[in-house]
TrEMBL record:
Signal peptide per UniProt: none
Protein name: Type II secretion system F family protein
Keyword Lyase: no
Keyword vocabulary terms for this entry: Cell membrane, Membrane, Transmembrane, Transmembrane helix
All residue ranges annotated as the Type II secretion system protein GspF domain in the record: 116-240
Superkingdom of origin: Bacteria
Topology in the lipid bilayer: Multi-pass membrane protein
Transmembrane segments: 70-97, 224-243, 255-275
Protein localization: Cell membrane
Length: 283
């Protein structure tokens, strides 16, 4: 009798210690995840001139991550699939930031020829570099407008012209803009005709962008094939699930089905990335 009581007491304290340790560990991980998420969101959103409160994004993200397993459990009857989807959703923000950065930089590059033409035209009309840039920044749309207005603010605070250009290049690390900054800096240092240099750069960049557009048009069919071949198995699986829910439901509830889902995801991802690499042509 005494040994049974001792075992029960020992088990009680062991469970209590385990619960306390898990609670402490989960609280620590939650705080660390919140700090990492908000810090990354604040930095990335600031770089893209998106003034959104990071804490609001964090709580929206947490509500989504915690609700997805229950929603999947209701419709598919599997906790495992719900947790897998939550893990995928947890890492999506990192790729979303990268996608938004890339899209913003490409839009900036496409605006460069017109911006350089405006600066060169203003300089040929008698304006100096600062006035020409100010006029261009007022007329252009974001992100060109935002970046050059920040460039002007830095100059007003005493930052040198070349240093302000280098700071902008760090925010827009594109080869086209590196060519522009190098041309502007060299022209200012050696005393060349900056307006003529900018016009030549504008013409060169415009031809390059046109060539990239033609290549994108020619490779768009291959890109679409990659998307279709990736989504087709998922569509077929959804149709089969509607036709035979009992048989297809075993994929989401049995270990062999989970392994099959993981294999499908790996193969589809590998195929899609391979097609994207084949049709990606650098100019």
């Amino acid at each position: 009798m005494s040994s049974a009581i001792f075992a029960a007491v020992f088990a009680f304290f062991a469970v209590a210690i385990l619960v306390w340790a898990l609670k402490h560990l989960s609280a620590t991980l939650a705080v660390r995840y919140q700090e990492t998420f908000t810090s990354s969101a604040r930095t990335n959103l600031f770089d893209m001139f998106l003034f959104i409160e990071p804490r609001q994004l964090f709580w929206l993200n947490m509500i989504t991550l915690l609700s997805v397993p229950f929603i999947v459990r209701i419709f598919l009857g599997s906790w495992i699939v719900g947790f897998i989807i939550s893990i995928i959703l947890a890492i999506i923000p990192r790729f979303a930031y990268k996608y938004l950065h890339t899209r913003r930089r490409r839009k900036f590059v496409h605006q460069l020829p017109d911006a350089l033409n405006m600066i060169a035209s203003s300089m040929q009309s008698g304006a100096n570099v600062s006035s020409a840039i100010e006029f261009m920044a007022e007329e252009m749309e974001a992100p060109m407008k935002q970046e050059f207005q920040l460039f002007q603010r830095e100059q007003r605070l005493g930052v040198e012209f070349n240093t302000a250009l280098d700071n902008m290049l760090k925010r827009i690390p594109e080869d086209e803009f590196q060519l522009v900054t190098a041309g502007m800096q060299i022209s200012r240092e050696v005393g060349g005709n900056l307006a003529e240099v900018l016009l030549r750069l504008s013409s060169t960049l415009r031809r390059k962008i046109e060539m990239e557009g033609k290549i994108d048009a020619l490779t768009s069919q291959g890109k679409m094939q990659g998307v279709v071949m990736t989504l087709l198995p998922i569509f077929i699986g959804a149709v089969l699930y509607q036709m035979e829910p009992r048989s297809m439901g075993r994929i989401f509830t049995e270990p062999m089905g989970w392994a099959l889902i993981a294999l499908i995801v790996i193969m589809l991802t590998s195929g899609y990335l391979s097609i994207r690499k084949i049709v990606a042509i650098d100019v």
